[in-house]
Amino acid sequence: MPADLPELGNILHSGALAYGKWAREFERKLADYIGVKQVLYTNTYGLAWQVLIRTLDLKPGDEVIATPMSCLQSTMPFAQAGLKVVWADIDPRYGILDPESVKSKITSRTKLVSNYHFCGYPGYIDEINAIAKENGIFVIDDCIEAFGAKYKGKRLGNVGTTMSIFNFQTVRMPNTIEGGALVFEDDELFKRASIIRDLGIDRSIFRDKNGEISAACDISIPSVNATPSDVNGYIGCCQMGVIDDLLEKQAINAKLWENRLFDMPSFLGFIDRKDATPNYWICGILSSNKEEDMKMFKEQGYACSAVHLPNSYYSAFGKQEMPKGVDEFYNKFIALPSGWWM
C-alpha cells in the first residue's frame, strides 16, 4: 500500500467498508476545519444535491435562481428534479451573482437561490443572504470549487448562509475520489437531511431487540442511498492533514502570475475582491484579447481554459436570453493554472 495511506489495506480487508469510523471521522475533520458543529458527508456531489432538494421539499415547477456561469454538476440536479432554473446575471468584473439581478428575478414560485462561488472566488454573500431573508427564501452557498476559500475572514460553510454544499471529486479539494457534503445552520434541516441520505431510515429505531429490521421504523420520506464508504472517508482524512499546505501552494502560484501579467497589453486585471480570499483553484484574469492570449499561454505550455460554458447555452434549462453580464465576462475571462501540483 502507498506509504501515505497506511490504513487502506486494513480497511479493505476489514469486512466493514460502509459508512463507519473513517467516514464519520472525515465529517468531524470537515466540521472542525470549516468551523461548524456538524457536516453531512455524501458519496457523491450529485447525491448531495438530491438530498438537499428533498430536504427542502422542492417540487417540480418551483423556481431556483442560479448563475449560468456554473459547472453543469451544479445546475443539472435542478433540471433533473423538474425545477425551473431562472438565470440571474453576474457582476462582469468578478464572475459572481449580481445581487440586484437576483432581486429582480424573485417571484412567488422562487424557493431557492444558489450562490455559486465561481472557480473558488467567493461571491456577494451578505447581500444575497439579506435579499433571500427579506423574501423568505432559502440560499445555498455552492462551494463546488471553493473549499477553504474565505469571506471576511471566515471559511465558506461558516459565513451565515443557511446551507452550503461541497464537492470532493477527483479535480476538487479535498479529493476523496468521489464525494460531497452539506452544511446546515438549522438542526432540524440537518436531521431531516441525515435521514434522507440513508434511504429514509432512522437508525436509532431501525432494528428491534433481536437485531431484525423493525416495523416500528416507518420510512415516510422518499429518499436516496447517499452514505459514503469508509475507503473514501479515509482518503479524505488523509487529505485534511495536508489541505492547508496545498492551499498555500495555490496562493503562492497565483501570485507568481502577477509579475508576468502586468506588462501584458491586453491584461484587464484579476478577479479577486478585497473582502474575499479565494482558494485559487485557478487564477482568474480578464483579457481584452481572450482568444489570442489563450493561444499564447497554450503555446508556452500552460493549460489555460475558460472552464465553464455559460449554462444558458443549453436547451435542457429552457429558452432564456443570455444575461449581458455573463456574456461580457465570458468573452474576457481566462483561467490560468495555479494548482498545488504546479
Extended strand count: 15
Q: How does the overall form come out from the CA principal axes?
A: globular
Helicity, in percent? Answer: 25-40%
Q: Helix and strand succession?
A: HHEHEHEEEHEHEEEEEHHHEEEHHE
Number of spatially distinct domains: 2
Cα-based radius of gyration, to the nearest Å: 21 Å
> How much strand content do the residues show?
15-25%
Which stretches of 5+ consecutive residues score pLDDT under 50?
A: none
Structure write-up:
With 342 residues, the chain is α/β, with parallel strands linked by helices. Helix content is 34%, strand content 17%. It contains 11 helices and 15 strands. The strands form 4 sheets. A 7-stranded mixed beta sheet has the order 1-11-10-7-6-2-3, sandwiched between helices. It has a 3-stranded antiparallel beta sheet with strand order 9-8-13, with no helix packed on it. It is globular, with a radius of gyration of 21 Å. The two termini are 25 Å apart.
SSE layout and pairing:
Elements: H1 8-12, H2 21-34, E1 40-42, H3 45-55, E2 63-66, H4 72-80, E3 84-87, E4 90-91, E5 96-97, H5 99-105, E6 110-116, H6 125-135, E7 138-143, E8 150-151, E9 154-155, E10 163-167, E11 180-184, H7 187-197, H8 230-240, H9 243-261, E12 267-270, E13 276-277, E14 283-287, H10 290-299, H11 324-330, E15 333-336
Parallel strand pairs: 2-3, 2-6, 6-7, 7-10
Antiparallel strand pairs: 1-11, 4-5, 8-9, 8-13, 10-11, 12-14, 14-15
